[in-house]
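4.2 Preliminary Data

To establish feasibility before requesting continued support, the project team ran the inverse folding procedure on a target of 219 residues. The structure was first converted into the token representation described in Section 3, and no sequence information of any kind was made available to the design step. The complete token record follows.
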């Protein structure tokens, strides 16, 4: 499903290049559950953003479901992301002036899903995450943990083929965190491919394989 070849990411400041990722070569097969681990600053989140097509590598090749992402236009990348990828952000990225319900509905609108089906999917998701009572609240009326739950719910509501999760349990208590990881495990068993960035050995153990990053390289 995912193949990267000689991926580099750097930022230029005058004549100085600061490298974030260096020469990454790896593959993730359909149906895998992979954890990316490494200390802060090792390039984990940057890599996840490149895999989710929210950022581009400075050089190298990235293939997603056989498509050469590095050769696609921004519009083509957006379409691929929209239809196949669910992204759980570390900092939630909820839309402040939309209610919890509307935040969940937004990716379904982007996918042009009919109103009746949208209502049904949002209702099911609110139930699943036990947040029905909060559906009319805005993000700033929710705790960090609740916003994180909504972020996870929004990522999976479209039933994506690939879930990319950046520290998905970072702001949750241990019981909620375990619940999310069990949900990922279930989705993975049903065929969803998952790549998560995590500091937690426990969370990483839910996956089938660990990619360790250090100073932007796979070790």
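Position-by-position output of the design step:
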């Amino acid at each position: 499903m995912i193949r990267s070849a000689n991926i580099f990411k750097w930022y230029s400041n005058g004549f100085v290049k600061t490298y974030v990722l260096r020469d990454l070569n790896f593959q993730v097969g359909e149906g895998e559950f992979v954890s990316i681990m490494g200390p802060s600053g090792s390039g984990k989140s940057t890599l996840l953003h490149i895999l989710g097509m929210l950022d581009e590598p400075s050089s190298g090749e990235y293939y997603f479901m056989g498509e050469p992402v590095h050769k696609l236009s921004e519009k083509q990348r957006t379409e691929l992301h929209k239809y196949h990828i669910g992204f759980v952000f570390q900092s939630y990225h909820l839309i402040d002036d939309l209610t919890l319900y509307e935040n969940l509905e937004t990716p379904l609108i982007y996918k042009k899903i009919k109103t009746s089906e949208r209502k049904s999917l949002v209702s099911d998701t609110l139930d699943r995450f036990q947040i029905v009572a909060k559906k009319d609240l805005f993000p700033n009326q929710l705790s960090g943990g609740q916003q994180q739950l909504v972020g996870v719910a929004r990522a999976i509501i479209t039933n994506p083929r690939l879930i990319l999760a950046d520290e998905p349990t970072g702001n949750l208590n241990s019981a909620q965190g375990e619940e999310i990881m069990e949900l990922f495990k279930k989705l993975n068993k049903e065929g969803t491919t998952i790549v998560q960035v995590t500091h937690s050995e426990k969370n990483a153990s839910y996956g089938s394989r660990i990619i360790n990053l250090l100073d932007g390289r796979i070790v």
